[in-house]
Write a structure and sequence with these properties.
This protein has a domain of 245 residues: ABC transporter involved in vitamin B12 uptake, BtuC (Orthogonal Bundle), CATH 1.10.3470. Helices cover 79% and strands 2% of the residues. It starts with a helix and ends with a helix.
């Protein structure tokens, strides 16, 4: 009964979330629609990063670099005669290929060394862009990116991009969920618990790490490609190091090791970022304040989550839900019935043995 009730609640929650997702673009202003699209894009990136951090136990501080590679790939190809759809498809493929090449030597590192190695990837990306101005536009960036078209369908308004992004979000979360519940997903969870233990049970650790790293980069690449067409302009300023830090905080806040945590963390941190930007851009305040304020608030949020809710918001809610179910009268009644049944069996067994002894 409890399983059926949980399935019904999950089904109702999915239906309600779908209806809200479809209705919101019709009611939001242009500014809020842009925030809504941004939340969707960040959810796609964070879903891949959550697979890498929460299940494979690998920390990446350079995810914004793969987000930027996807954006530049789509923008460059679209500006050089490729159809926008082909350019968008090429964005995750190119990003995944580069991540595969980078991951072969990089994933030999562990712990803090790996984190700093991925941060180096981000810094190299930001250093290469100005040096390839003939292709990437340098510090100025690339503009006049053509509108995205999928067959006869032109995607130009913010509402169109909102629907496109959230369709991709749904597909991304479904892929992530299927991976988590598959045999490779069990291998990833084993790696997160103990690399040596997973290796001892037959898990191909290095191969799994590389595949997970490549997949997370592909998720960031498709999000970056959509971003390029949505904004119509890309520059290195859109992919700072602080964005990679934000992605990590989104994973931690939502809950490492959860698929839906990507959505919760991305939504919460994006809204907080917008509020901090609004507060920090007052005319009477210094221009460096938004960045400093963001870093300070992010540090407080990260420490508070790690200290108070180490499993993240989704993990904490899941624990509370399970406790509430266990404490419900129906659950207690069933538990009492089970105890009585076991007790009755225990009482009957000695009598049987007594009869056998007497005979």
């Amino acid at each position: 009964m409890r399983i059926r009730a949980n399935r019904k609640i999950s089904s109702y929650a999915v239906i309600a979330a779908g209806m809200i997702t479809l209705a919101l673009p019709l009611t939001l202003s242009s500014t809020n629609t842009e925030i809504y699209v941004t939340v969707g894009l960040y959810t796609i990136v964070v879903a891949g990063l959550s697979l890498l951090m929460g299940f494979a136990g690998q920390v990446s501080l350079g995810q914004a670099a793969f987000y930027g590679i996807g954006s530049y790939t789509a923008a460059i190809m679209a500006l050089h005669g490729w159809s926008p759809l082909a350019a968008l498809i090429a964005a995750p493929i190119t990003t995944a290929f580069l991540a595969f090449l980078i991951g072969i030597p990089l994933l030999r590192l562990k712990g803090h060394a790996l984190a700093f190695g991925t941060l180096a990837v981000q810094l190299i990306f930001l250093a290469v862009i100005p040096e390839t101005a003939s292709l990437t536009g340098g510090s100025i960036g690339l503009s006049a990116i053509p509108s995205l078209r999928i067959g006869p369908l032109a995607i130009s308004s913010g509402r169109d991009y909102a629907y496109l992004v959230w369709i991709v979000v749904l597909v991304t979360l479904i892929i992530a969920r299927n991976i988590v519940h598959s045999r490779p997903g069990r291998g990833l969870r084993a790696m997160a618990a103990s690399v040596s233990g997973a290796s001892a049970t037959g898990v191909e650790v290095e191969r799994y790490k590389l595949k997970d790293f490549t997949l997370s980069a592909a998720f960031a690449g498709i999000a970056g490609g959509i971003y390029a067409f949505f904004i119509g302009y890309v520059s290195p300023d859109a992919f700072p190091v602080v964005l990679s830090i934000e992605f990590v905080i989104m994973v931690v806040v939502g809950g490492m090791g959860t698929v839906t945590g990507a959505l919760v963390g991305a939504a919460l941190i994006t809204v907080i970022s917008q509020v901090l930007t609004t507060l920090g851009t007052s005319p009477s305040l210094p221009p460096q304040l938004p960045t400093v304020l963001s870093l300070g608030v992010y540090a407080v949020i990260l420490v508070a989550i790690l200290r108070l809710l180490p499993s993240g918001l989704v993990g904490a809610f899941s624990s509370l839900w399970k406790k509430a179910q266990a404490a419900s009268p129906v659950s207690q009644f069933k538990a009492d019935e089970n105890v009585e049944a076991v007790s009755s069996v225990d009482k009957e067994e000695p009598n049987e043995f007594t009869l056998v002894d007497e005979v």
